Amino acid sequence: MAHPKTTPEIEIVHRSCNLCEAHCGIEVHVDRAKQQVVTIKGDPHDAMSHGYICPKAYALKGLQEDPDRLRTPLRRVGDEFQPISWEEALDLTVSKLQAIRDAHGANAIATYLGNPNAHDFGATLSITPFLRALGTRWRFSATSVDQLPKMLSSCLLFGSPGRFAIPDVDRTDFLLVLGANPLASNGSLMTAPDMPGRLRALRERGGRLVVIDPRRSETAAIADQHLRIRPGTDALLLFALVHVLFEEDLVDAGDWIQYTNGVNTIRELAREFSPEVVASTTGIEAAEIRTLAREFATAGSAACYGRIGTCTQEFGALASWLVDVVNILSGNLDRPGGVMFPQPAHEPGDSRARRSGRIPYARWRSRVRGLPEFAGELPVSALAEEIDTPGDDRVRALVTVAGNPICSTPNADRLDAALSQLDFMVSVDIYLNETTRHADIILPTTAPLERSNYDMIFHGVSVRNHAKWSEAALPKPEGARHQWEILNEIAGRMHGADAEAADELVLGSLIEATVGEGKACPDVRPDEVRSALGDRRGPERLLDLMLRAGPYGDRFAADGEGLTLKGLIDSEHGVDLGELRPRLPDMLATASGRVELAPDLLVGDVERLLARIGEQRDD
Questions:
Q1: CA distances from 109 to 100, 103, 278, 371, 383 (A)
Q2: What is the pLDDT of residues 130-185, one digit of tens each?
Q3: Rounded to an integer, what distance in angstroms lies between the CA atom of residue 320 and that of residue 323?
């Protein structure tokens, strides 16, 4: 079929669908006379997805046209909502938040961030200064009901919550999947558009797919082997695999040992977890566990991948940790076909990791149950109790940003009741839903097709190094505001300034972190950077700086070659930056500069796991 052409009436805009982590390339066909989307198709020339899309991509059209989507700020008046101006809405928001902060302290305000923030680079770049402007430590998000255990284990092993070892699915000989259904999700913490095609290619090149899952998922149905495990026992199974690796001398003796601490500690811990000991609890026969360990260890290359099923359980941190332990001991860390670390175009261009040695864990605790903070946030399961438990220091105000926690987090009924007890609530959201109906002010943002985007989070977990700019398919409606504009406006006003001041503060911090001796751009002055970036404001200017200072960037050299925002915009189908490449040990950010295979925090929890052996719960 011939590739469609842009006509005077219909313009085709190439961008990515940003409704899930796959970020598949799409063609948005726009009737410019009416400024309406005619249809949405897969982009056959996209550097990553090659034309593949799922039904979510076409749903962008429905989202754009949805009559229920909010398009003007709303203020609660009794049990109803009435439209108000942006100026009035922002004035009320800031004055109420300031009054509560002045009377009860910054921690009387809580924030909740939903998943859509990760799919909007403007939001991603504005969230941190926004949170700092509020000053509260009471931060909650969808992360704690998703991947926080994996972030914790990655931080302890590799030095940063965002350093995920990603399966090199396009080159592996053996893919072991636990608690995940990539055939349906197209990957999670593993950006891999057209996962059905990638799994098919694995089988066609003679590779093996094994799925560990309590149910026969779509991925399990096509696997070479499906082992049904009792829910919540993944850590026991993984420890049994480690046991076999040591017992049968299958631990790889490669270069990884030179930059890894704790191997002997793992050996001693694994002694208690033989396949015979864990078989009755996991529901998987000892002989099957031993065979799995041997086949994984002796494959030409192998990748163990665990996802939400290994996170959202009692031993989520241990299971997430042991996924990487299996990959490391089998010699599959940082090697083609194993698990590797992507190098996104926007990360700092110098290869040396910044090694603070500080683990962002338990620096403060929740008021009611004393639950530990990690990476700047508390478990969202504590949000309701922090509102409805009496005390002078309880949460009195809530800011939700692109989230519906009543539908997506634990204790929904209690949270629903608790929100009605707040002194003030503001929601940045495009819908009146189960959560935002409690808000005093609702501030709607533009829709995805009305704003440009760059896959800032998901390029960092991609199975292939890649960069893609998504141009806005439709103009921003008159009077509408992007999310980053709303957050910058509130952040600026909280300090008696404005949105431009907030934007300048972020730019200045980023230049300071990027320019100068020992940094990504040592041979350029701050004023030269500002001149090169031009006069535009907002996230595009920040992204241009990050790209130019990144590993593929021009480093602001006048006659240099390298990636810039302009170059990325001109490459409408994306830029393929190549297969994943080995990055260790330079990118390790632990205090030692080594992989910490046996961190004390996780080792200390193994005794609790041991106590579960022998338990048999109802299947």
A1: 8, 11, 46, 18, 11
A2: 999 999 999 999 999 999 999 999 999 999 999 999 999 999 999 999 999 999 98
A3: 5
